[in-house]
Amino acid sequence: MAHRHRPVDFPPLLLAFVFSLLVLLLSGRCVDGRAISPPSDGDAMELPASDGISGYAAAGYKHSPLLVLPRGSAAEACEPSYGFLPCTTTVAGNLFLVLVYGFLMYKAATCLSAGSEMLLEILGPGIVGGLFLPILGALPDALLILVSGLSGSKEVAQNQVLIGMGLLAGSTVMLITLLWGSCVVVGKCDLLENSTSVDSQDTNGFSLFASGITTDSQTSHAAKIMVISIIPFIIVQLPRVFKFLSGRVAVLIALIVAIALLVSYCLYQVLQPWIHRRKLEFAEHMLMILGILGHPQTAALGRLMDDDGRPNKPVIEKLFHKIDQNKNQLISPSELRAFIIGLKIHEVNLDNDVVVDKIMKEFDTSHDGNIQEEEFIKGISKWITKVNHRSSASHSNDIVDYYMEAREQRNMLIDQIDEAAEENIKNPASTCVTSILLLILGTSIAAVFADPLVDAVDNFSIATKIPSFFISFIAMPLATNSSEAVSAIIFASRKTQRTASLTFSEIYGGVTMNNTLCLAVFLALVYVRHLTWDFSAEVLVILIVCVVMGIFTSLRTTFPLWTCFVAFLLYPLALVLVYVLDFVFGWS
Question: Which of 5, 278, 475, 543 is the most core-located residue (most Cβ within 10 A)?
Answer without folding.
Answer: 475
